[in-house]
What we know:
Blueprint: H1 2-46, E1 51-52, E2 55-56, E3 60-62, E4 66-74, E5 81-88, E6 91-100, E7 106-112, E8 117-125, E9 128-129, E10 133-138
Parallel strand pairs: 3-10
Antiparallel strand pairs: 1-4, 2-4, 4-7, 5-6, 5-8, 8-9, 8-10
Amino acid sequence: MRVRSQVVRRVTAVAAGLGLAAGAVVGVVGAASANAETTKSASSAAAVKKSVTIDASDWIVPAGSKVRYFGKTAGIAKNTVVQVQRLEGTKWVNFPATTKVTSKGTYSVYVQTSRVGKHQFRIAVAGLVTKPQHLTITKK
């Protein structure tokens, strides 16, 4: 009887040891998996494609009125300068209106002009430009 109980204790101890060892392996594999997931998430964030959108509060306004241009960005850092541009002839020139990208990736900027006629404005930020927005300025 005594020999049998020693064998049972030893088998139980070995089984318990194997269980602890298996748990340690699972823990190491789990940690490695979590680290790989973190690395994957970090590389996905770095791979976010840069983009910018534009919308306007109005498209036809009287001379001297303010028009708000606003939009969203992706992959562009907070506080990056947003520049409004106007098409003059065949060239895009910087309009005297700028703002910065917010922490939420948005921007909002006002333009005001008394130059009557049809105009095209766009946003330039971080090497990107939006599609042109048409704005008609009428006489007061």
